[in-house]
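Re: the pair you flagged

First of the two:
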Amino acid sequence: MATKINKKVFFKIHSWIGIKLSILFFIVCLSGTIATISHELDWLFNPDIRAEIQPDYASKNTMVQAVKTHYPTGKITFWRGAVAPYLCDVVYLQENGQRKYVFVNPYTGKVQGETTLTIQRYFRDLHYYLFIPFQVGHFTVLFFGFLLFISTVTALVFYKKWWRKLFDLKTGKGPVVLFRSLHRLVGIWSIPLTILFSITGMWYFLERANVASISDTANTKAPKIAAVDLDSTAFSHLSYTIDYDSAARVAQRAIPGLKVEDMFPPRKATSPLYLSGRSDVALVRKRANRVYLHPTTYAVIKVQKAEQIQTVTWLNEIADPLHFGYFGGLLTKIIWFFGGLGISFLVGTGIWISLKRKVRNARQAKAQRLGKWKYVNALVVLLMFGFMYSTLFERYAVQGRQFWLITITWVGLIYLAWFIYQKKINQAVKPPHPRSPQAPRV
């Protein structure tokens, strides 16, 4: 008897998480899902970012000169190497108080275009902190790492012998039975990635909250140097005058086998030139390999090799590749994408099943829809939209086309949710017509 009671409690916890926080849960899951293939979406919708693979790469200095020719008054703040062979390098450029993303072909060295907002940046921001500032958004998103873990564990407890039902799909017994069966089946197949996403999400929470000084231990601090001997005018142009080819060669000598991809020109006179990239160490992100150089002499100031980092730092450096699935290239991205779709499907079908279960009692269905937690969801979503549009206009200076694309997409998603969970459910709980001898069976 005690076992049955416990399983019932676990079911209630599982349902509470999936229903009461459903809107936020769905946004977090779906945004993370799309973020896994966001670079590929940029390739699909923006021809300027595409690169045709060639046998040889262009000189980094040639690429910088091309950027300087197009943006003589600009300043490079970050140079992100192409994340895939079919993509351009992206140079983050500050010009006239506005940040631009400049696409430079790594094979030809030519500037192919620019934008103020990429699909990758939008979905990373949305999934990262819901555009809500002051750390509130970050911790709101990261809190769902714990909720996802609890939801998964409770489901495994109350679903009897789930490991025997990997191919158990019930059909021909109506939509409720079908979706309930699909919900369970997708849930079982999603277990490995669900656990992975939740654990990495909880790690992000601990790191951001600096629990047990994890952040202090895991994150390498950039060293300071004596101020470079340049006047203000020369320093303002430093990002264009650095010999990036020489700097890359020095970094490769410091870390044999290093493929330099990302570069950070100094933003202050006491900041070094910082380069990072990939080595033979698997799983870790690029910043696990770091080389700090003097920005004018290219003397090595500090080196961090991925194979030598301590355990806490290593755990921190594998979190992103595991969470977003880019450690294995396009193949793992696609697997992670469908895994994320599965989790989003679980949230959506969980709501539908719960509401459908209550349609036989219109009063219960109404109570379900008018629960106080919908106001919590609505409040956070309204904050998200307010800060999102503020950020889009102020930081990213979105153009008309970008604004309408984002707005229409959100309006479409909101309408679809209303149609499925409000209109259809309302139709289901309507009393039978007075002349009808019997209400239609649901």
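Second of the two:
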Amino acid sequence: MNIEQALQGNYSFSVHPEMALQQYQELGFHVEKNLFDLAYCDFLIEQAYTLPAAQVKNFKPVLMPHKENPVFLEAMKNAKVVNVMEKLVGGTPAGIQTQFFYCKPGTRGFSLHQDNFYVQAEHNQFVSIWVALVDTFPGNGGMIIYPGSHKEGDLPVRKLDLELDPGQDRNANNEETVVPEAYRPVHLTLQKGSALFIHAHLVHGSNTNQSDQSRYALLNLYIREGTAFRSGNSAQRIPITL
């Protein structure tokens, strides 16, 4: 498959579902342009500032914001997202986690990882979606992916010795995935409202935000209904009916 075409989001699930699915299965990711309209992105950012942590100016990533504001549960249940997830997980999807990222200027990026390192779901039964709520690019904390790396399954990790970043998740830089030399990083540019669908075993991370603006993003996790997964000590994930 052509990586450049995939990065440009040339095949949408709404227009070319078969090609989009084939692309995802081959590369381990899918870009869906204009999934959320611009006004809705602004609304989600506005609502994020009503969350308790933001009220006391704590701008670390918020785990499970849907428990504090139903707007984020509605975003998880978005029909366009659920329709894509049905195809990616091969059945009825269920939500298991929401997360909101403020990523203030200077925030360190998330180290390279595979989402299944944390969730431990069955292969091909778990997919994440990362929605850019502003234009994102390498300089403001944009995503880094390793196309095709999902085919490796679980990869080894190595521990990191980094100080905690006050604006980053405490688990973001504990370790990093050891990526086989055959794979090369791609630094993404995503327009506001576009979404990156991520295979559970795709190696990915994010850049440090070196800009003077926040890089807002929404992350939601989905599994195929009935699939076993790890609830997590902090996340306490439970299936959410969509």
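The two ends are 32 Å apart (CA to CA).

-B.
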